[in-house]
Write a structure and sequence with these properties.
There is one protein chain. This protein has 570 residues and is an all-alpha fold. Helices cover 70% and strands 0% of the residues. The longest helix has 38 residues. It is globular and about 90 Å long.
Length: 570
């Protein structure tokens, strides 16, 4: 089972109380550090504003030569790269550590070491991650006892969920449990952390098949989360106990608990535990002899894996089940499909955990799978080969599929590159803003210079007022509004905008579309037809064509990529 991922604990522990004061001053360095800090976190999701406040924060810190403030500014910058560039985030965290070392601050460099360890875990660099946790642990022991036990919990989560060292993790959780029992665990400051420790204890005992101990801690956790009105944790304990009942072979009781918890996991977008729920539903139905229902839930596990590309060793057993299920039903294609997926997961996990020699294949060894895969391919091929030409046809099919797959791979890579280019063009610039040169060189195009300037100025106002969002706009209509000749407007657009009038209008619309889709996630739920009408196009086809011509990718792909990144709560 995947434990509930602590919210960015450092932020929760050490953000000062939000201030209500607001300011209209343009020189943000005149604001206090706390005000700049609050403005930064109030604008999560708007990186342009966040970097503005962070730069002001850093400027004040440098001006005052205040190292701990420099550290906090670098920490804020590191958080901006959480999803986009892990290595850059680590670089800024190293700066946090440098500036805050030996300052005695209660937050840093402990927070920076923990965040760095988290980023290293994303890269499967577990030894380096543990080294950073250990540094955080040593410092926190001297500067902040509360945070010391938060770090200990991080280490426990890593040992149990990433490294599979359940006994070591259990000892850490017991140590934390003893500490929290000595304080008011129903205080809002400690309740969530205490419940996280209870969940860790229950989950470790479950992984070690200490089912009675699992039930004991699940009951305590349920009681505490109920009293403190923490709904998500309450249903996490229900889910965990449901999985525990499945291990006890109390399948009906397990189904009842899991089915109660699953809708809440979906509600809170807790994808990792949604996957866990489907996995244990599959195990429960298998125990009840309902093979088809078991397969249905293991397929749901696979569907989540296909989206997130994340799965732990705890949940891979569904694939051997599906392989056997389809083998027994004579469905060679699905048998081959899940053999292929299972082998791929095995390869990925071995690569990611190569330093730890972690193996995932419990019911099948890889040579056995390779043999089955080859036999299935041969059997499927023999079913299709009817004449001596069959082999040639099969070979041609394989070559074609290979070429198509290569084409698809290159296309996907090219699309991704184009998508990243679009995003990077609108991304914040860490060092300076690029200012547009408003000077326009007047060319001799057979139109008076004064008239050219007038039309260019009107075009500029037209762009600023987003007149291009009007549907069915033509050069004749615009020239009428400009009170000039349509040929003049057309020629000036051709020469000074370097494009035809239609392309000029469409490009303006698409640029605006891109910015709005990034800023407003509600628009991403619109149909292509609705988006077309929203941004001035008459139909979905013309919108898609213009979008592709401008960006090199389709709008559906762009929207899909913007939506990727749903976080799994660990």
């Amino acid at each position: 089972m995947i434990s509930y991922k602590l919210l960015r604990t450092v932020i929760l522990l050490f953000i000062p109380l939000l201030l209500n004061a607001q300011t209209k001053e343009k020189d943000f360095t005149k604001l206090s550090y706390d005000e700049l800090h609050d403005l930064y976190f109030d604008n999560v999701g708007n990186p342009k504003k966040q970097i503005l406040y962070t730069k002001a924060y850093m400027t004040k810190a440098v001006r005052e030569n205040n190292n701990i403030r420099k550290a906090r500014a670098n920490y804020q910058i590191a958080l901006l790269y959480y999803k986009t560039d892990v290595n850059k985030a680590i670089m800024y965290l190293d700066s946090v550590i440098k500036y805050s070392q030996n300052t005695g601050d209660r937050s840093f460099p402990v927070a920076a070491y923990c965040e760095k360890a988290d980023f290293l875990k994303m890269q499967y660099k577990f030894k380096e991650a543990m080294a950073n946790y250990n540094e955080a642990e040593k410092i926190a022991l001297k500067t902040n006892t509360d945070y010391y036990y938060v770090v200990r919990e991080y280490i426990g989560i890593t040992k149990s969920e990433d490294l599979g060292d359940y006994n070591e993790a259990l000892e850490i959780y017991k140590e934390c449990y003893k500490y929290y029992k000595s304080i008011d665990v129903r205080n809002s400051r400690y309740s969530r952390r205490y419940q996280g420790i209870l969940f860790g204890l229950a989950d470790c005992h479950k992984s070690l098949y200490n089912t009675d101990s699992t039930t004991y801690y699940n009951k305590i956790g349920y009681k505490e989360s109920h009293i403190t009105k923490n709904e998500e944790y309450k249903y996490l304990f229900i889910l965990n106990e449901g999985a525990n009942q499945v291990l006890k072979k109390n399948y009906k009781a397990g189904l009842d608990s899991i089915n109660k918890a699953l809708p809440k996991m979906i509600k809170y977008e807790n994808v990792g535990n949604e996957l866990a729920a489907y996995y244990y539903l599959g195990k429960a139905y298998d125990g009840l002899g309902k093979k088809a229902k078991a397969a249905e839930n293991f397929i749901k596990v696979d569907s989540i894996y296909k989206i997130t590309k994340e799965i732990s060793t705890e949940f891979v057993d569904g694939y051997p089940y599906l392989i056997t299920y389809y083998k027994n039903s004579g469905d060679k294609e699905n048998q081959l499909k899940y053999i292929t997926v299972y082998m791929s997961i095995d390869s990925i996990l071995k690569k990611n955990y190569r330093e730890l020699n972690k193996l995932v294949n419990k019911e099948y060894d890889i040579p056995h799978l390779i043999s089955d895969k080859e036999n299935l391919i041969a059997s499927l091929n023999n079913d299709k080969i009817k004449t001596n030409w069959g082999f040639a046809f099969l070979l041609l099919t394989i070559i074609s599929l290979g070429s198509f797959a290569l084409y698809q791979y290159k296309t996907k890579k090219q699309y991704r590159s184009r998508f990243e280019k679009i995003i990077n063009e609108t991304k914040i610039n860490d060092d300076f803003e690029v200012k547009k040169d408003s000077t326009v060189k007047i060319e001799d195009i057979g139109i008076a210079e004064e008239l050219i300037n007038q039309i260019l100025e009107k075009l500029s106002r037209f762009e600023s007022n987003k007149g291009y969002l009007e549907s069915n706009i033509t050069v004749q209509m615009l020239s009428t509004v400009f009170e000039t000749n349509s040929k003049y407007v057309s020629k000036i657009v051709n020469v000074y905008k370097k494009k035809s009038f239609t392309q000029y209008i469409n490009d303006l619309r698409i640029d605006y579309t891109i910015s709005q889709l990034q800023e407003n996630n509600k628009l991403r739920k619109y149909t292509i037809q609705a988006l077309a009408l929203e941004f001035g196009f008459n139909n979905a086809e013309s919108f898609s064509t213009a979008f592709y011509k401008k960006t090199g990718i389709k709008p559906t792909y762009f929207i899909k990529e913007l939506g990727i990144g749903t976080q799994t709560t660990n």
